């Protein structure tokens, strides 16, 4: 009985959102993220290329502990009102057991590919490295 009540409530909630789905951040944005060999210096901002509706960002992020750290796409959003794509790539903690982490710094490259709507005007890619270092690249497509 409780399952039916929950399912009915979920159906009503989804029906209520039906007209608002285009306002949910990131909806309709197709992204692919992978770690690769570092092709960009760790001290350089991310490289961004735009080819039709495909945006490719490459960079290298430094993080702590080769056993407990990683690089992750933390945020990807297309802001319709400003026709802007925002990507945030971060040094992430992947530890489950703190005592097994190593005390070293590692730099790993990444590649993000995102397919955005045709009316894209601006792309902003930000990297957050270990110890608070931040690098950013913004491409203004209205100048092209």
- Which shape, going by the Cα principal axes? elongated
Tell me the helix content.
10-25%
> How much β-strand is present in the residues?
over 45%
N- and C-termini, Cα separation: 60 Å
The tally of helices reads 1
SS content category: mainly beta
Number of strands: 8
Low-confidence stretches: 12-26
N-to-C SSE string, H for helix and E for strand: HEEEEEEEE
Overall average pLDDT: 83
| Major beta sheet, strand line-up | 1-6-3-2
Query: Roughly how many Å is the radius of gyration?
Result: 19 Å
Sheet with the most strands, sense and barrel status: 4 strands, antiparallel
This entry's quaternary arrangement is: single chain
Description of the molecule:
The strands form 2 sheets. The protein has a 4-stranded antiparallel beta sheet with strand order 1-6-3-2, with no helix packed on it. The longest helix has 16 residues, at 2-17. A hairpin with a 4-residue loop joins strand 4 (69-79) and strand 5 (84-93). 17% of the residues are buried. The chain has one helix spanning 2-17; strands spanning 30-36, 47-51, 54-64, 69-79, 84-93, 105-115, 122-128, 134-140. It is mainly beta. The chain is 11% helix and 48% strand. Mean pLDDT is 83; it is low at 12-26. It contains 1 helix and 8 strands.
């Amino acid at each position: 009985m409780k399952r039916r009540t929950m399912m009915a409530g979920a159906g009503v909630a989804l029906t209520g959102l039906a007209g608002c789905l285009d306002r949910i951040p990131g909806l309709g944005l197709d992204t692919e993220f992978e770690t690769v060999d570092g092709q960009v210096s760790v001290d350089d901002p991310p490289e961004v290329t735009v080819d039709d509706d495909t945006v490719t960002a490459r960079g290298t992020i430094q993080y702590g502990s080769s056993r407990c750290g990683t690089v992750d796409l933390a945020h990807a959003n297309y802001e319709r009102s400003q026709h802007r794509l925002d990507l945030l790539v971060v040094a992430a903690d992947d530890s489950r057991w703190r005592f097994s982490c190593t005390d070293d710094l590692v730099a790993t490259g990444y590649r993000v590919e995102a397919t955005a709507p045709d009316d894209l005007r601006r792309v902003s890619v930000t990297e957050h490295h270990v110890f608070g270092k931040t690098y950013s690249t913004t491409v203004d497509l209205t100048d092209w």
